[in-house]
Amino acid sequence: MAYSAGFTPHPKVSYANAAPTGTGSEAEYLEIALVEQRDPGELRARLDASMPTGLDIIDAVEVRTPDFSDRLEASEWELLLPGVAPGEAARAVEAFLGAETVEVERQTKKGLRTFDARAAVTSLTSAEASAETGGDGPVDEPCAILRLVVRHLTPAVRPDDVLSGLRATADLAPPVPAAVTRLAQGPLDEETGTVTDPLAPDRDAPLVATAPGGSA
Question: Which fold has domain 73-195?
Answer without folding.
Answer: Alpha-Beta Plaits (3.30.70)
